[in-house]
Design goal:
Blueprint lengths: L1 H15 L11 H12 L6 E2 L1 H6 L9 H4 L7 E2 H11 L9
Antiparallel strand pairs: 1-2
Helix pairs in contact: 1-2, 2-5
Amino acid sequence: MMRTMLLATMVVLVGAAPIARAGGGCEGASVVEHIFDAADEDGSGALSRAEYMAAGLERFGVSFDASDLDGDGETSLDEYLELYDLHHPPRGGAEV
């Protein structure tokens, strides 16, 4: 329960301060990396479906299947950061 609350708080903080990785300034992607690391219970560097679900990450609008961009059954940090970038475009960037 405490772990889920911590992850939820971190995700809210990331959502409140969307900053692109390459843009400098506030390190929103750093917070995303911490969320990922906290959810990666076995330290494998990828989130299994069980880890993703246990961390409660689906409640933030991205299912495990949608986060597994290459379909290998895991969500890597690169996939997770790519999703972050898709949902938090750089300031001043073109709107989609």
